[in-house]
Design goal:
Length: 317
């Protein structure tokens, strides 16, 4: 039950209000891509007491929009996750989220039954489903200027000739004065520490990383997990992405960057970059490490005003 509780805690931290947990009947729902999306999918799972150690949850996907073909596709996709003993709900939800065609547009098939019953387990295998599609401007390939995100890996490249030394110096000075580092949190010998900074462009994100990496302890940490969101008001678009582990020698905390970015999205954080540094202490934390990463970031974002903490409506007696 401890591992099950850690998984629920991680889901609540990652997805926030898009998760509904009913401990009375051991039922959890995850709304994909969000609770208020008009064509959302609802991943509903009933968790037996011995999940995930030896049993799999009973899973169903609720939607009036799925065609029979897409229901079959979901069934086949979830079938690949069938490994008892592995937590599965996050991977199922992300599998659905990554297949945008299931919920973002008419699938042409309608459906006479709004429930897809998929009573099976799942397998933690997020690398298999990293199929991120990049929108690249024409002529961008081979460009040595600036920085870019590709495949969830933050790549710092040579600055273009248009980026003068004075521009870079200004960005570094601006960012250096505004980075805030939170208190470290230690859990079972692993330590987590968040850093946040206001940013208005990718050069400032790059400057933040460079400044943090001046500190040997941060540069040599096990992982430095990055996410950022920048609102471009001139065309009302978002410049946003993440990295599971910044730096050439950082193998990355699998899918942690995407979870961190999702937390920024559902919390309405804008014009901000956040890095969570983790020093591994030799004890495997399981799914709870993702909740620790997100909670470490959320606490500092609340302290710095990027997230407004909701007040309880309960009246004091």
């Amino acid at each position: 039950m401890e591992e099950q509780s850690m998984e629920i805690e991680a889901l609540l931290s990652i997805y926030g209000e898009d998760v509904r947990w009913q401990p009375s009947n051991h039922m959890v729902e995850i709304h994909v891509p969000s609770r208020d999306h008009p064509r959302k999918l609802v991943l509903r799972a009933f968790l037996p007491a011995d999940y995930p150690s030896s049993a799999s949850p009973a899973v169903e996907v609720l939607s009036p929009h799925l065609s029979h073909e897409n229901r079959a596709l979901i069934g086949d996709g979830f079938e690949d996750f069938r490994i008892p003993g592995s937590p599965c709900l996050f991977n199922m939800a992300e599998w659905l989220r990554e297949r945008e065609f299931l919920w973002a547009a008419e699938d042409g098939g309608g459906g006479d039954d709004e429930t897809t019953d998929l009573k099976m387990g799942a397998r933690v295998e997020s690398d298999r489903w990293v199929e991120k599609e990049e929108e690249e401007e024409e002529g961008n390939e081979g460009n040595e200027g600036g920085i870019y995100i590709q495949g969830g890996k933050f790549r710092r490249e040579l600055r273009s000739e248009a980026t003068t030394d004075s521009m870079w110096s200004h960005a570094v000075a601006k960012v250096e004065a505004n980075i805030v580092t939170g208190e470290p949190l230690t859990e079972r010998k692993s330590t987590f520490q968040a850093h946040v900074c206001p940013v208005n462009d990718e050069m400032e994100v790059e400057a933040m990383i460079e400044i943090l990496f001046r500190h040997n302890k941060i540069r040599n940490a096990t992982h430095n997990i990055l996410a950022y969101r920048i609102h471009q008001a001139e065309n009302n678009t978002w410049l946003q992405d993440s990295d599971d582990g910044v730096g050439p020698d950082d193998a990355g905390e699998d899918a942690a960057g995407g979870r961190l970015l999702h937390m920024l999205q559902i919390s309405g954080v804008e014009n901000c970059a956040v890095v969570v540094t983790r020093w591994f202490g030799g004890v495997l934390l399981g799914p709870s490490r993702f909740a620790l990463i997100n909670n470490t970031a959320r606490n500092l974002l609340e302290q710095t005003g990027y997230i407004v903490k909701k007040k309880s409506n309960a009246k004091k007696k």
